[in-house]
């Protein structure tokens, strides 16, 4: 199994369209920036037949430092989640 990076998307977009690699890179960059901006504003990004990016809020809690066994307070935080659409899941099977 290979790990495909952003350059793979740029090359694929360039090959499947009439875009130059420079223009394809700009398109991919704008797409990623748009998703990032939407998530920063706590919006959900739902891409039809692909999946959904969304933010979850993790509540603060008490934890234990494994080295000192001292009780610590873990601050609330946000996480980015991705839920694949049914069609994406089916295409991978």
TrEMBL record:
Keyword DNA-binding: yes
GO biological process: chromosome condensation
Record-linked InterPro entries: Hist_DNA-bd (IPR000119), IHF-like_DNA-bd_dom_sf (IPR010992)
CDD domains: HU
SUPFAM superfamilies: IHF-like DNA-binding proteins
Keywords linked to the UniProt accession: DNA condensation, DNA-binding
GO molecular function annotations of the record: DNA binding; structural constituent of chromatin
Source organism superkingdom: Bacteria
PANTHER family: DNA-BINDING PROTEIN HU (PTHR33175), DNA-BINDING PROTEIN HU-BETA (PTHR33175:SF3)
Family: Belongs to the bacterial histone-like protein family.
Protein name: HU family DNA-binding protein
